[in-house]
Sequence to fold (401 residues):
Amino acid sequence: MNLPPTIADTFISLAAFLGLIVLIRAIRSFDAGSPQTRRFLFGLRVLAVLMVSRVLAWWTGFFVFEAATIIAAGLVPLAAVLVAEALMRRHAPPLTKWIAGGGAASFAVLAFLPDALFGPWLLIGLFLYQLLTLALAGHMAVTRDRKSLSRAENQAVDRIALSLLLILPLLITDFRSTHVDFPVRLGGVAILFLCWLLISLGQRTVSHRDTVVSFVILTSVSLIAALAIVLETAFDTAALMRTASIVTSAALVAVIWKDSLSLRMEQRRQSLIRHLAEDRIDDTMGFLKELQIHPMVEGALLLEETDLADLDLASLKTLLSGRPLLRASETSALSEAEIEQLAWLFEKYEATHVMLVSKKPFRLVALNMPSVSATPGAETELKVVQRMALLISERTHDRHP
Fold:
């Protein structure tokens, strides 16, 4: 008999669902069209359906949700094999394909048959099918030809293989019964760890070891926090496991969300590099107008000489010839008159940065980007854009004197 869920079971499953949704959105924002990405998204969506359908089945008892849970659980091994094939760029052995595909099809049919026909044997068969197929997918990862894959691909396979080491033992706890009575279902925690490993793949500066150490620290802190709560409230061992699982799940969702924001910020920061790589460079005005629509410099103002008539143009041209990119906070080695001029210029156009983009005719770009002062990489990219704009203007001037 399958035991009823606890509050911890529901919380962990919903936390895993939220983590999967965050990861799906992050992956779709980068490259949703490639075959490899489509396989990843299929697997993540199957897991998301599994998490939410089983919560609905627990608390409503509706047959449709119970059937959806069995179908999604039967599709998880098939999705794992498809992702393994995509990652390693080779087909799975025929036997593995038959087991994965046949099992998924079988449980899609069995899900609609009455429980009285199978009783606990359906869950036992589902568990064995998942265990066997995930082990076969793990074997594909271990026995792969590492030389045929790039460093990034090998890193992705290693991280997913590591998650399988955690998923397989925790998978047992999802099959609670009167014979195997764990205090809490921990499959959702394993899925959250998988989400964290996958989303960290986008952070190339974070090593595999850093991710594992971070997970160990997070888990340890969660266990200590749960222990403190249990000691304070005099709970038993089962309550300790439930509390630790809830705290760990909440922490993992927060970390996954934070990492997704970091990836989004990194994507915006690199928009200036994409501007150099993809936009037009044969016309100064076209280059600058396209620059204005990029998120990092959205709202940048293009200033002509007529817009600067109330300033000492000769002094401003001399200053910007030597320092073509100026920050509002950058006043070292400047005369009092230059500081006064720049202060008026920054205040008038509510700018944090001014850069020289053309000498003949004299043009400036004023933009408000306070976050750049705390992001050295982004400011370097802005300097590259300034130099590119200046080179384009000189090239255009030489072509049309």
